[in-house]
Amino acid sequence: MKILLRESVKNQVYEIIRKKILSQEYKLGEKINMLNLSKELQVSNTPIREALSMLEKDGLITIQQNSGPKVMEMTRECFSEIAEAAMTLILGGYELCLTKNLKAELIKMMAEALEQQKRFESSGTDYDFAEASICFDACFIKVSQNSKLDLFFERLFDLLFLIVLYDHQNVDVDRRANIGEHQLIFDAIKTGDDEMVRRLIKLHYARMPRANRK
């Protein structure tokens, strides 16, 4: 039984629900029972409603007047919009990297992220692999030395995590192929083929929406 502190109860409830969504304790499209949650956390409905409102702003849940709160559904449109947003931020991060002459730092950071992803190829859970996959992409953002860009990507991270996890669990995405795409991007950066880097990033995200989605 979780015992919540008095301060920032809504923030604690927010983190608990968020982790339930990311860990898939709450499945995509699943309704969230506020009464059960209130009993589990031993709090009133007020902080739960406030936390759900925060999660709705993050895009992790939807709240409809007649049906109540439920976890986001992975529609084709939703998947595509998240992928496009991530691609745009990553391309922007790379342009800043080039402008600020930070390619050496990017290569070092990416080498470590790629090795981490390879370690999870055969033994890691889908959760571990999805997180490692996004950490590779996040290198473009972290190296940019732009706190606002970093903030935008941080706000997108959970949604990006869910579409990567969905891809690997429902569309039979091959882990080795995913690593291979990252390796091609990494190699193009090392050889200085900036136009190829841009093209590979676009291809990496353009392939994500699949025909069998709603």
* Spans of at least 5 consecutive residues with low confidence: 209-214
Question: Strand percentage, roughly?
Answer: under 5%
- CATH topology name of the largest domain, in short, is Four Helix Bundle (Hemerythrin (Met), subunit A)
The number of distinct helices, counting runs of at least 4 residues, comes to 9
End-to-end gap: 38 Å
Order of helices and strands: HHHEEHHHHHH
Give me the Rg, rounded.
19 Å
CATH architecture label of the largest domain = Up-down Bundle
Walkthrough of the structure:
β1 (61-64) and β2 (68-71) form a beta hairpin. This protein has 214 residues and is mainly alpha-helical. α4 (76-99) packs antiparallel against α9 (194-206). The protein has a two-stranded antiparallel ribbon with strand order 1-2. It contains nine helices and two strands; from the N terminus they run αααββαααααα. It has two domains: 9-71, Arc Repressor Mutant, subunit A, CATH 1.10.10.10; 76-206, GntR ligand-binding domain-like (Four Helix Bundle (Hemerythrin (Met), subunit A)), CATH 1.20.120. It starts with 8 loop residues before the first helix and ends in an 8-residue tail after the last helix. 71% of the residues lie in helices and 4% in strands. It has helices spanning 9-22, 34-41, 45-58, 76-99, 103-123, 126-142, 147-170, 175-191, 194-206; strands spanning 61-64, 68-71. The longest helix has 24 residues, at 76-99.
Features:
Arc Repressor Mutant, subunit A, mainly alpha, 2 domains, 71% helix, two-stranded antiparallel ribbon, disordered C terminus, Four Helix Bundle (Hemerythrin (Met), subunit A), elongated
